[in-house]
């Protein structure tokens, strides 16, 4: 199946400063892509370019075969900005009904508002909503019209932990119905478990783009093993396995992915001196630091 969002060799300048450099990126129908990067890395500029809000200076962008900013692209694209804003005098029902009428989408507005947790506030004025409630209303807008591409810029901003879980459940539903979802986020722990692929920008350059497993393999970062000794046996354990003493009762050591099983077998052979082993593979935060580090060429 063709990709819903295709970005090829995109370049963007702001004056003499290049803010996007030869960006290649694609998102398939039903795929959830996390777009990561420091402030100023180019994430927002890329999203604005996809929306047709700012011109590019080289390359191309296609949204389900249409050019950014065209009527077809606007019809197929949903966008949730970080700082979502609505008319404060309208109620949630009125605002969402207005969006539905403008888009020509047939929508059960009360059901949509209930889906995002605003059933009790659908007839309250938006000016009384908290930031999290406005974010939920923005998500309800994204659900209108079954978009082909959904662009979510820091979608969990202002949401409590339960609401964040609800939001990602809705994102999963969007993907299941075939929407290509791009999530720009700083919440690394969240996107690590709830996306299919990770792309990282640094100073306008794409420095990583793959699944979490493949990025881990490419980065070759070490896995940490923490071995807890039986009471009074820490000295013996430390002598046998090496590594670094931790809390007077454990030893921590690092190994590469291909050494992991050999190390586990070596530790298991020590017998009763070992009472516990915990293993911590590289996390997305570690991978992000690796790929986005400032001295990376």
From TrEMBL:
Keywords: ATP-binding, Nucleotide-binding, Transport
Pfam family, one: ABC_tran
Keyword Transport: yes
One GO molecular-function entry: ATP binding
The UniProt record lists the keyword Nucleotide-binding: yes
SMART domains noted in UniProt: AAA
Domain ABC transporter: 5-228
Gene3D superfamilies per the UniProt record, alphabetical: P-loop containing nucleotide triphosphate hydrolases
Name of the protein in question: ATP-binding cassette domain-containing protein
Organism name: Parasedimentitalea huanghaiensis
């Amino acid at each position: 199946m063709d990709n819903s969002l295709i970005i090829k060799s995109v370049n963007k300048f702001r004056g003499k400063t290049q803010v996007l450099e030869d960006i290649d990126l694609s998102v398939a129908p039903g795929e959830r892509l996390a777009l990561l990067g420091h402030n100023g890395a180019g994430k927002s500029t890329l999203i604005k370019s996809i929306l047709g809000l700012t011109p590019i200076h080289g390359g191309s962008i296609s949204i389900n075969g249409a050019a950014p900013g065209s009527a077809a692209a606007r019809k197929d694209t949903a966008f949730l900005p970080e700082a979502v804003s609505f008319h404060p005098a309208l109620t949630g029902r009125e605002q969402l009904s207005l969006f539905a009428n403008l888009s020509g989408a047939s929508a059960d507005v009360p059901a949509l508002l209930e889906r995002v947790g605003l059933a009790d506030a659908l007839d309250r004025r938006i000016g009384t909503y908290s930031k999290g409630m406005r974010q939920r209303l923005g998500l309800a807008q994204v659900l209108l019209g079954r978009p082909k591409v959904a662009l979510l810029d820091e979608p969990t901003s202002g949401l409590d932990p339960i609401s964040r879980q609800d939001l990602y459940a809705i994102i999963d539903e969007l993907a299941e119905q075939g929407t290509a979802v791009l999530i720009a986020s700083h919440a690394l722990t969240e996107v690590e478990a709830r996306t299919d692929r990770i792309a990282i920008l640094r100073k306008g350059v794409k420095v990583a783009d793959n699944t979490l497993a493949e990025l881990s393999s490419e980065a070759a970062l070490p896995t940490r093993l923490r071995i807890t000794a039986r009471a009074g046996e820490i000295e013996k354990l430390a002598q046998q396995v090496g590594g670094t003493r931790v809390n007077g009762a454990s030893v921590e050591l690092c190994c590469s992915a291909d050494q992991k099983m050999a190390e586990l077998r070596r530790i298991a052979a020590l017998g009763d001196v070992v009472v516990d082993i915990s293993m911590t593979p590289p996390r997305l935060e570690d991978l992000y630091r690796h790929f986005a580090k400032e001295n990376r060429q």
